[in-house]
Write a structure and sequence with these properties.
Elements (H helix, E strand, L loop, with lengths): L3 E4 L9 H8 L3 E6 L2 E6 L27 H11 L9 H10 L7 E5 L5 H9 L3 E6 L2 H10 L4 E3 L13 E7 L7 H14 E10 L8 E3 L6 E3 L9 H8 L5 E7 L7 H8 L11 E2 L6 E2 L6 H19 L7 E7 L5
Parallel strand pairs: 1-11, 4-5, 4-7, 5-6, 7-8
Antiparallel strand pairs: 2-3, 8-14, 9-10, 11-14, 12-13
């Protein structure tokens, strides 16, 4: 059977296109991908990985180089008590829930972290829930404090689960952390243990350079959360075609315009658009201090924030996350 790809349109208004194009002297452009229309300003668009040092994050042998993201996420899952981790999480979870088939009774959360999605699933229906994640502190928090069923382990190797064990497997905000080989292995395992349906999510066309930190001591420049790939429509087709004959690509949330070049410009001057407190370098462990902007720079940041809010109000923005449901071929 031929693969059926269905893409749900994410609306973007076109009023004020001519006005902005005239005032900025730049052309507003559309990016169409399987039906999705995105309006954005050229002068805020940067290359996907502008000035981004990927070699510090993934080495040739597919291992992280000196970047201790496991320790970072362990602290997130325990210290934040499974709280929402971004302003887009609520919309993401709502979209996931809307895609769960009505006949679902058992769900595996592959890469459950601190359990924020499992908490939402438990409140939404009578599901038999189970989670798996590499973070042992996160799993311990889930089991001891939240009384949920979970275990430590990698989604790239789940021999403890039988074929077709779960009605639905959800893997949310995980694949962007994995290299190509790990993604291929993880997706194969996810479809093996899923009886029929799989839901996968990733950030929507993320500008990796926007979320990078720069250590002034060792020069390391890396994504604050450990993301190593920019996900686009072609990614889903490539990884899902071998396993599914029906793929539904949707989006969730609203992400304002973001400039990787502007973020880089701030980093080289010791500031950041993504930091609100001191951080520790994952390469050399030296502190990366948060510096509160003052003077002219403070005014520049205020203007940038205002531009984001105004453009978002006029519908010039992108989606925040991909939310994709794929179904295994039915056995005749």
């Amino acid at each position: 059977m031929r693969n059926k790809f269905r893409y749900e349109s994410y609306p973007a208004t076109r009023r004020i296109r001519g006005i902005i194009a005239q005032q900025s002297g730049r052309r507003l452009h559309d990016k169409t991908a399987s039906g999705y229309e995105e309006c954005s300003l050229n002068f805020l668009e940067g290359p996907p990985d502008v000035q981004y040092n990927r070699s510090l994050m993934v080495s040739e042998n597919s291992r992280r180089q000196a970047m201790d993201y496991n320790a970072y996420w362990d602290s997130v899952y325990t210290e934040r008590d499974s709280a929402q981790q971004s302003p887009f999480t609520e919309a993401l979870h709502s979209q996931i829930l809307s895609l769960i088939p009505s006949a679902t009774s058992s769900i595996l959360d592959a890469g459950c972290g601190g359990g924020s999605l499992m908490i939402r699933l438990a409140a939404a229906g009578e599901y038999a829930l189970h989670g798996i994640d590499v973070s042992e502190p996160g799993i311990e928090h889930l089991v001891k404090n939240l009384r949920m069923s979970a275990e430590a382990g990698s989604i790239t190797d789940m021999p403890q689960f039988a074929d077709d064990q779960f009605d639905l497997v959800i893997c949310s905000e995980v694949l962007e952390h994995l290299d190509d080989q790990q993604v291929e292995t993880a997706v194969s395992e996810i479809f093996r243990v899923a009886k029929r349906n799989v839901i996968l999510t990733c950030p929507y066309r993320e500008k990796l350079g926007y979320h990078a930190l720069l250590c002034q001591d060792c020069g390391a420049e890396y994504h604050i959360c450990g993301h190593i790939r920019r996900v686009e429509d072609s990614f889903w087709r490539d990884i899902l075609r071998p396993h599914s004959n029906e793929i539904k690509i949707t989006t969730s949330g609203v992400r304002p315009l973001r400039s990787a070049r502007f973020s880089r410009w701030l980093r080289t001057r010791g500031h950041s658009v993504i930091m609100s407190s001191d951080q520790k370098c994952m390469n050399c462990s030296q502190p990366i201090p948060y510096r509160r902007p003052t003077g002219a720079l403070r005014q520049v940041l205020r203007a940038y924030s205002l531009l984001q809010r105004v453009s978002t109000g006029f519908g010039i923005h992108s989606a925040a996350n991909y939310v994709v449901r794929a179904s295994k071929p039915s056995r005749s």
